[in-house]
Amino acid sequence: MNDALAPTLPLIGSGFLVVLLALALLWLVSALIGRLFATAKLPAPARRTATQPRAPGIPPAHLAAIAAAVAAMTDGRGRVVTVWAPAHLTGSWASEGRSDQLGSHRVRWDWAVPGPPHVEHGVAADTESEKKG
Predict the structure, then answer these.
(1) pTM, entire model
(2) Residue 130: inside a domain, yes or no?
(3) What is the DSSP string of the chain?
(4) How far is the C-alpha of 40 from the C-alpha of 34, rounded, in Å?
(5) Is 22 part of a structural domain of the chain?
(6) Per-residue pLDDT, 4
(7) Which domain holds residue 26?
(8) Is the dihedral angle over the CA atoms 13, 18, 23, 24 positive or is it negative?
(9) Is residue 79 within 8 Å of 45, Cβ to Cβ?
């Protein structure tokens, strides 16, 4: 074994042990919190009657999908209290999308220009004096 590495091995080993202990402690705390929430009893969800108003502007299929997702994630113990869709202006979304799309394009300066040969600005052109020298 390398003599320069030998003094650092205990430091590396203790650091590794500290990291493993911290991860085990986080796992234990997470498991305990999960068990606490799993054993909590929630009140039975209120059944919707025909007299309750439906959320305006939200299609019934979307409400059913949201309720199904909540039921699947909470094993039937969760309930949807309110569903609302925030108002937004579609024009601003479209203009932001156009701005992102157009801003992502690279201007290609190296394309060949039809016609006479393209001269780079700032670059000295071949002159007779350069050809002689």
Answers:
(1) 0.32
(2) no
(3) --TTTGGGHHHHHHHHHHHHHHHHHHHHHHHHHHHHHHHPPPPPPPPP-TTSPPPTTS-HHHHHHHHHHHHHHTTT-------------HHHHHHHHHHHHHHTPPP-TTSPPSSSPP--TTSPPP-HHHHH-
(4) 10
(5) yes
(6) 80
(7) 9-42+60-81
(8) positive
(9) yes
Residues in Cβ contact with 45 at an 8 Å cutoff, skipping those fewer than 6 apart: 78, 79
Cα 35 from chain centre: 29
Cβ neighbours around 70 below 10 Å, total:
15
Query: Any idea how long the chain is?
Result: 133
Closest CA to 62 of 79, 78, 85, 46: 85
In a domain, 17, yes or no: yes
Query: What's the domain count of the chain?
Result: 1
| Model pLDDT for residues 44-70, shown as the tens digit of each residue | 766 766 555 555 677 888 888 999 999
Q: Does a structural domain hold residue 69?
A: yes
What letter represents residue 113's amino acid?
V
Any residues with CB less than 8 A from the CB of 63 and at least 6 apart, and which?
54, 55, 80, 83
